[in-house]
Design brief:
globular; 2 domains; Aspartate Aminotransferase, domain 2; binds pyridoxal-5'-phosphate; alpha/beta; Aspartate Aminotransferase, domain 1
Length: 387
């Protein structure tokens, strides 16, 4: 079905930060399949793990023990400082699990109609509950009635959250992205997430972080909350967790990690041997090479380069981001830049109408990053000059 407006290109193969189309034209990938291929394309360790696992066993069922799932669960909870994890197949499913956990948590506390605070301009997925949580009318329009149980406030606004705390009885959780991705690479004020944590503590609300885009090293730490000194109660992952093999995860800590009991939740494919073997290799490779440090330094390098090249270019409002999650905000809609970049062999994205979004693979070389900066800044200069 026609769910995507597709660009006129089909890729045949890739290697690291490079892709080749069916005509053998080469492209520099500064999008990573939208924050999925953090280790780049055709990463040898992931390829090997997938091939080896496929040769042994693809799937059994969650009604049996799954060694790769247990190994991944141990590795992931240790990396995140969380206690338990549920595996699904996508980001939306990870968030569905988190929403169900929050409701269970509420009902256990005797809250009859548990409410979750969500943000304007957020993105949490396309299933009915997650599109209802999403702060974008375009995602919701036509799919009413929406799922109930969400209260929306502006992102980055602690006073608005405090007002909800003062006026609403049935709130049990806050669901928030550490940096909004689809919403325009919106980096909150430094005191925002610690403030959300403090408010959640004082009200006994769960703090649920959607790290589906920010996780797996992207922002310069394994998970974006590790830039601060707090932990969420629940965190969701997907996108880069399998480097392209579909897998999602909902991690929880403390009492919240014990809420699901057999029969409460499940998934046929979730946590199957193939997906877990891939994700385990992703975790190991990121850790062994400390690739989040590369994301931090390469991200600074790219942002410095762009700020320098675009200083005094009218129409460019700001370059913002953290690690390799980078946005260039323009003063006008700029979707056509995607096609122009494609013609020049560069893959970028535009989100929130007027923000160029870069999500390069963590394995991009400094030389490739410099090429990205020079190509993109000339494209931007021509575009805002009306050429
Ligand atoms: C991509 C994304 C999702 C949805 O993930 P799917 O795998 O497409 O369901 C949810 N939240 C955030 C922050 C995302 O970036």
């Amino acid at each position: 079905m026609s769910t995507y407006k597709r660009l006129p290109v089909t890729f045949a193969r890739g290697e690291g930060a490079l892709l080749w189309d069916t005509q053998d034209k080469q492209y520099l990938d500064a999008l990573s399949g939208v924050a999925v291929c953090n280790l780049g394309h055709a990463h040898p360790a992931v390829t090997r793990a997938v091939c080896e696992q496929a040769g042994r066993l693809l799937h059994t069922s969650n009604i049996y023990g799954i060694a790769a799932q247990e190994a991944l669960g141990d590795t992931l909870t240790a990396l995140a400082g969380m206690d338990r994890v549920f595996f699904g197949n996508s980001g939306a499913e990870a968030n569905e699990a988190a929403i169900k956990l929050a409701r269970l948590y509420g009902h256990r506390r005797g809250t009859r109609s548990p409410m979750i605070v969500v943000m304007e301009n957020s993105f949490h997925g396309r299933t009915l509950a997650t599109l209802s949580a999403t702060g974008n009318r375009k995602v919701q329009a036509g799919f009413e009635p929406l799922v109930q149980g969400f209260i929306r406030v502006p992102y980055g606004d602690l006073a608005a959250l405090q007002a909800v705390a003062d006026n609403q009885q049935d709130v049990v959780a806050v669901l928030v992205e550490p940096i909004q991705g689809e919403g325009g690479v919106n980096v909150p004020p430094a005191d925002y997430l610690p403030g959300v944590r403090a408010l959640c503590d004082s009200k006994d609300w769960l703090m649920i972080l959607d790290e589906i885009q920010t996780g797996m090293g992207r922002t310069g730490k394994p998970f974006a909350y590790q830039h601060y000194d707090f932990k969420p109660d629940v965190m969701t992952l997907a996108k880069a967790l399998g480097n392209g093999v579909p897998i999602g995860a909902c991690l929880a800590r403390g009492e919240t990690a014990e809420l699901f009991a057999p029969g409460n939740h499940g998934s046929t494919f979730g946590g199957n041997p193939l997906a877990c073997a891939a994700a385990l290799t992703v975790c190991k490779t990121l850790s062994e090479q400390q690739l989040w440090d590369t994301a931090a330094s390469l991200g600074e390098h790219i942002m410095d380069g762009l700020r320098h090249a675009l200083a005094n270019v009218r129409g460019v409002i700001e370059v913002r981001g953290q690690g390799l999650m980078i946005g260039i905000a323009l003063d006008r809609p700029c979707a056509e830049l995607v096609g122009r970049a494609l013609e020049q062999g560069l893959l970028i994205n535009v989100t929130a109408d007027s923000v160029v979004r870069l999500l390069p693979p963590l394995v991009m070389s400094e030389q490739q990053a410099d090429h990205l900066v020079s190509l993109l800044s000339s494209l931007l200069r021509e575009f805002v000059a009306g050429k």
